[in-house]
Amino acid sequence: MKQKLAIAAAIALFALTGYSAPTSPTAEPAPAETTETAEAAPAAPLDLTGEWKQTNSNDESSFQSALISADKISIDWVNEDDGSTAIYWVGTYVAPTEAADSFTWDSENDKSITDTAIMASGDDTKTFTYKDGVLSYELTALGTTMTVEMEQQ
Q1: How far is CA 66 from the centre of its chain?
Q2: What sign does the CA torsion over 147, 53, 68, 143 have?
Q3: pLDDT tens readout for residues 85-117
Q4: In terms of Cα–Cα distance, which of 73, 58, 57 is closest to 130?
Q5: Which of 65, 66, 63 is nearest to 81 (CA)?
Q6: Is 150 exposed, middle or buried (0-12, 13-18, 19+ CB in 10 A)?
Q7: What is the pTM of this model?
């Protein structure tokens, strides 16, 4: 009986002192150190293909719009009031081959198309620049030169 009492007293003592069996840690174990370095996937080349619209026109209903495809850029004058369009530029597009925040290329005029268009540029080449989401180029009409700015639609 004394032995049962001693066991009961020991159990009570353990219960009162908060003794318990060791538990598994609650924190995640630290990951093992590795000597390999994860390489980031290379960034894709800048993609300018798609539709663009002039953002700095003086008239909301009259502006220039562009379409860039794999190897061509075409720009039209647009008049939403009467639903008309007129060719301004059709030329080459040389796509970027690397990831970049800016890009510039010289486009060669496709005169087989633009020579018969009254509102088209007569320039042999035109320099286009992309930077900070804006496509820009110089436009001269009626003796006035301006920089057209476009954003992708």
Answers
A1: 18
A2: negative
A3: 999 999 999 999 999 999 999 999 999 999 999
A4: 73
A5: 63
A6: buried
A7: 0.73
